[in-house]
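QA checklist item 7 of 12: single-chain prediction sanity check.
[x] sequence parsed
[x] length recorded as 166
[x] structure emitted
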Amino acid sequence: LVFSPCRDRSYALLEDVSADGSVAKGLAMVGLESGKKLYVELIGIAEGGKLKASAINLAHTEGRCQLPGGNEESWRAAGNEPGWLLAIGTEHVVLKRQGKPDVLLPAGQVKAEAGVAHYEVSQGNQKLTVRFEQGLCRDTMADSVFGWRATVTSNGQLLKGCAWQR
């Protein structure tokens, strides 16, 4: 496999160094074997012309290079049925759901340890609890694979989906 960074003419051979082969499994889930063009964000180390990838942040078909979230956004999560989107930034956390008003809360720090990241915030009558577990998460509607499984609870409503770091 050959990896070519966005907006860069260089390339590296891709080596899956994940303990369980999850990088190759995730790429296969979104169509690598059938020759589809993929946009992939990997976690790894570039060394001697190789990219030693230990995890997937996100992978989807026919994607374009995306800008990092930077100071404005550190995590995103999304799910289907019902459709929802969560964005965690340095100043605010916003949860958008189909047919419901947006939940906008002040940001706090996401605490991560041993492949699990959690976050909890409340203000007034709004309470939001977020849990991200590292592991492949497939969104078949978006034809994408993400590196984290997301569980979000907003005022008692449980939402499940996938997450990725920005």
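[x] summary fact logged: The helical segments are 22-29.
[ ] second reviewer sign-off
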